[in-house]
Amino acid sequence: MQKITISGFCAAALFTAAAHAETVFVSLEKDNAIAVVDPVDAKLLKTLPVGQRPRGIALSPDGKTLFVATSDDDTIRMFDAETLKETGKLPSGEDPETFALSPDGKLMYVSNEDDSEVTVIDIAAQKAVAKIKVGVEPEGIAVSPDNRWAISASETTNMLHWIDTKTRQIVENTLVDPRPRAASFTADSQQLWATSEMAGTVMVLDSASKQIVQTIKLEVQGVTGDLIQPVGVAIDKDRRYAYVAMGPANRVAVINAQTYQVEKYLLVGQRVWNLAFSPDQSRLYTTNGISNDISIIDLAEHKVTKSLAVGRYPWGVAVKP
Amino acid sequence: MFKRIQYFAGLMLLFAVVNATAAGKQSIKIAYISQERAVPAALSNLDAFIQNKGQLGAELAISDNNTTGQFTQQQYELTKIAVPVGGDLIQAFNALGDDTGLVVLNVHPAQVNQLADLAAAQNKLLFDAATSDDELRGVQCRRHVLHILPSRAMRADALAQYMLKKRWREWFLVVGQTAEDQLYAAAIKRAAKRYGMKLVAEKAWDNTYDVRRTAQSDVPQFTQGEDYDVLVAADEQGLFGEYLDYRTWLPRPVIGTQGLIATAWHRTHEQWGAVQLQNRFKEQAGRWMEEEDYAAYLAVRAIGEASVRTKSNQVQAIKDYMLSDAFALQGYKGKPMSFRPWDGQLRQPVLLAAPRSLVSVAPLEGFLHPKSELDTLGYDQPETACK
């Protein structure tokens, strides 16, 4: 893939062939439910009640289990991704919002915002196996694809904490721009991308040195700086592009991940929060909290093709192949 | 550090490194000085008087700073000094050690400069975390005093922006009997002029009766004969303002010190992560966070932010950083906060709150400023009297 020069035409042909039968799950914070969406036909298939205030949502690497953090129930629920029957609950600690899975799907790392902790859960045993003290208000969390690092971003301490997944100790703390929100690794685990809600920046860190190597300031003409509050970030598997949800700026930034230049700002729904790729990475799905919809972005063209009403306060999004 | 341990994995060296780190923590000493208040006459018994407003905010911020400090090898220490009513505040201040260079004050406006002008204060950085006094930020300003709460001018401007948006341009101002009420009224008049409002009437409330018993007959009579869009109350102590709503001769909303108020913090505020701060405070204090708690919290957090970024515990380094463009304080109001270098006022959004709902946040959309829209509130650089 890396060597192919994508001309729009051939890319479109390639992607159409690959794109089928995926299911998009969206957590609906205000409806206490998840929306099940067919993104190809842009259809809301059903809405399923899951518990109080669902936010973080993810699929196990094998695609069989759907995890939903039901924050006001103080638990993370597990569902069979096919039948959508609840199969268990994980002891997430209070008010779980965001979590990340280890690449082998065995462990889950949960941010406990009110306790300044990260809880590590053994999913099979449904047991918390470790608690790691981090900074004030941990929010964003990510595990590197090589399973070396778990990253916790603390919003008030303004740090990214590098947790060694083997020892479960913090080995480095990187001071970053104010109110870091989300963090995401590149597929090769060599870079960590993190957003700062207050500074309106995206920072790129080198996993070896754990230092910031690039800071990208997001600026949109006609939108005041205080509305530019970047949240979710996703980088494609070849590190050609990174996509950043810009919150109340209602846009997704398209960043060339090689040159670090912002190439485009795509207008999506209001208060865009989180992002997920389709399995073939031909599309990107965004949750738009205030306009109660998701946007579907065609990544070959970098165009928003559809928006689909899904329910109240769409928060997180997960895609099942 | 970890690489070194990997290379020379001797147990002794490991201990040596750990000990050196524990002993080598940088200490940042902060004092919090408050003077207790006599319990004021209250209009109603609904809200109990809170004696320690502020202190618990400083304590929460110290704990937040120390959570961060464990990763930066910095240790924050808070010395709390509560001087009783009538006690000697100056003596308490003079008793502070030279190594305590950062002092948060929760004292009466008249006492701020009494303390700031002491010889012992000259090499310290003081944080006024309780007053809204425009003079202390203007002609009476001191270069080593920073002001955390919005000034009266900022509050009045915030209200005026909202009134302009609603096109409620004709104001009827009701002023209480205290000196503070006069200052609040002055700020309202300044804002009215700045935003093109018309003061169509102004009356003094003389407070001769217990308004709890007489409001139903007093207020209609008091407000009769004037036509206006809003009634603006200047009653900082809360002696009559709550009793204006629903009793005016004409059906008109009440704003100012009661009704729709302009405040730094409010229990109805939950956006931009504020609910986290509200929860943490409530868990620790067992009550809602008040404005003074928020101010003390911000003062101590500002010290935390500046000392972490500068890796310093020196007053001058912390002050220089705080007054620089690089300083950005996260204060749970959606915009990074910073200090106005011309008068030491903390730039911040101002909440417009009704008792049980957050109505708006100033600066409102559309009020533009060439540098920072936050500077549409209060005294901007060209207007400052701080020399």
UniProtKB/TrEMBL annotation, chain A:
Residues 1-21 form the signal peptide. The keyword Signal applies. It comes from the Bacteria. It holds the Pfam family WD40. Keywords: Signal. SMART domains: WD40. The keyword Chaperone does not apply. PANTHER family: DIHYDRO-HEME D1 DEHYDROGENASE, PROTEIN NIRF. NCBIfam families: beta_rpt_yvtn, PQQ_ABC_repeats. This is PQQ-dependent catabolism-associated beta-propeller protein. It comes from Methylomonas rivi.
UniProtKB/TrEMBL annotation, chain B:
InterPro entries: ABC_transptr_sub-bd_PQQ, BCAA_transport, Leu-bd, Peripla_BP_I. The keyword Transmembrane does not apply. Keywords: Signal. SUPFAM superfamilies: Periplasmic binding protein-like I. Pfam families: Peripla_BP_6. It comes from the Bacteria. Residues 99-353 form the Leucine-binding protein domain. Residues 1-22 form the signal peptide. Coiled coil: none annotated. The keyword Signal applies. NCBIfam families: PQQ_ABC_bind (TIGR03863). Belongs to the leucine-binding protein family. This is ABC transporter substrate-binding protein. It comes from Methylomonas rivi.
